[in-house]
Design a protein that fits this description.
The protein is about 40% helix and about 20% strand. By secondary structure, the protein is an alpha/beta fold. The protein has a domain of about 60 residues: Beta-grasp domain (Ubiquitin-like (UB roll), Roll). The longest helix has about 35 residues. The structure holds guanosine-5'-diphosphate. The site of guanosine-5'-diphosphate (GDP) has 15 residues, from helix 1 and helix 8.
Amino acid sequence: SLSIGIVGLPNVGKSTLFNALTKNDVLAANYPFATIEPNVGVVGLPDERLDKLAEIFESQKIIPAPVSFVDIAGLVRGASKGQGRGNAFLANIRDASAICQVVRAFSDPNVVHVDGKVSPKDDIETINTELILADLQTLEKAIPRLDKEAKLKKDRAAVAAAAKAAAELLDGGTTLYAGAAKAGIEIELLHELHLLTSKPFLYVFNVDEEELANAEFLASLRDLVAPAEAVFMDAKIESELIDLPEDEARELLESIGQTEPGLNQLIRVGFRTLGLQTYLTAGPKEARAWTVPIGATAPEAAGVIHSDFQRGFIKAEIVGFGDLTTAGSMSAAKSAGKVRMEGKEYIMQDGDVVEFRFNV
Ligand code: GDP
């Protein structure tokens, strides 16, 4: 399954964040792979639509879409040269589908900063530099081989050219995710090289609670990473929120000017960064969100539930979540003409409430 790798310099709050993320995990029973590795956490995608569906269908259970986070420890300055856990770290990060960098923006003088001062900009650069150096090593090894292949096979010439263009971009200090499109590099051609900086990035800024309401400060951090997405939270507060009863947690959030935990935002933004969306199913047993890539067809979506559903796909009975809740029930939505029959070509939309018809 697709996972988001959490990276960052030591002492920025990665463990605090990861522990808070996984502590409120109600998914372990539904997703047994969650417990395979200690550094993997599977958390539910917060989705209020499921509560609403469970109400309408009187479902006994709610099953949110799973999102996997992997705590990738060991990124330090010099990792690309084998410092710290060097290679073990690089192997772990290669498996992640997106990279979430935790950046320290909190000022607590009791927590030592590895480089002696709190500077989000410098930290982001340090991490980017390590990832860029790792990619440059990969490319330097690959380019002579690609050049040879290009002489023998025409279609390999484009790959070799893309590899060289990528190396040039990285040499200038830009990650592939940030700069490949603008530089006209077809990143898909380089897929086989598993380049780290071609993965989608998102950023978590771990800020002091007083700063969470400081729009100007947050904007200055956002500017450091745009167009990548940024999430702001106080990891320490998040880890306290997890242990509180719901009403007290809400009070604490309100006291720092927040409407929901930063973790919820992180899970949602992470999910989106992976290029995923959900469709919904509901009945008396469960209200459930299913994950599909953006652009998936109806049969592909059916296949997420069971391969038989995809093989025997006939059609999908679909109502948009908004139309369903406006009507108040499935039968009311049908009477209002809001329930559609969609065929094999239909492209799934986020929030489609679906029932599949299939041959067995
Ligand atoms: P990691 O090395 O990146 O995994 O960092 P940790 O999560 O272990 O955090 C390092 C230290 O910073 C710990 O003592 C945490 O309690 C502290 N810490 C983490 N997040 C925050 C925060 O948001 N505010 C403050 N003041 N301290 C934090």
